[in-house]
């Protein structure tokens, strides 16, 4: 399912035009991003939880040359599906 498919579904279910549905979806995605970037977590009942997690620095290997490289630490977004979504 693509973004345009989701917008179409929102538009149909909420009986609003596609432009309004697209703005609503964009607002939700931006709100989740802002909350996670601020260090918080976002829980959506029936869907799951989004949160940022620190990934430690580690050694990796360049597949082309076989050379060992250092991969820096960074923050990544983790998603954990809710029980309802898992059992669906």
Question: What does it look like?
Answer:
The chain is built from three helices and five strands; from the N terminus they run ααβββββα. Strand 3 and strand 4 form a beta hairpin. It has one domain: HU Protein, Chain A (Irregular). It is about 40% helix and about 30% strand. It has helices at about 5-15, 20-35, 85, and strands spanning about 40-45, 50-55, 60, 70, 75-80. The protein is elongated, with a radius of gyration of 18 Å. The two termini are about 15 Å apart. With about 90 residues, it is an alpha+beta fold. The mean pLDDT is about 95. A three-stranded antiparallel β-sheet has the order 1-2-5. Strands 3-4 form a two-stranded antiparallel ribbon.
Note the beta-strand portion. Answer: 25-35%
**What is the H/E string?**
HHEEEEEH
- What class do helices, strands and sheet pairing give? alpha+beta
Helix content: 40-55%
Question: If you average the pLDDT, what whole number results?
Answer: 95
CATH structural fold name: HU Protein, Chain A
**Stretches where pLDDT falls below 50 for ≥5 residues?**
none
**Largest sheet report:** 3 strands, antiparallel
The CATH architecture is Irregular
Distance between the termini: 17 Å
Quaternary structure type: single chain
Counted up, domains total 1
Number of distinct helices: 3
Cα-atom radius of gyration: 18 Å
CATH superfamily, by name, is IHF-like DNA-binding proteins
Care to count the β-strands?
5
Indicate the CATH class.
Few Secondary Structures
Q: How would you describe the shape?
A: elongated
Spatial sequence of strands, sheet with the most strands: 1-2-5
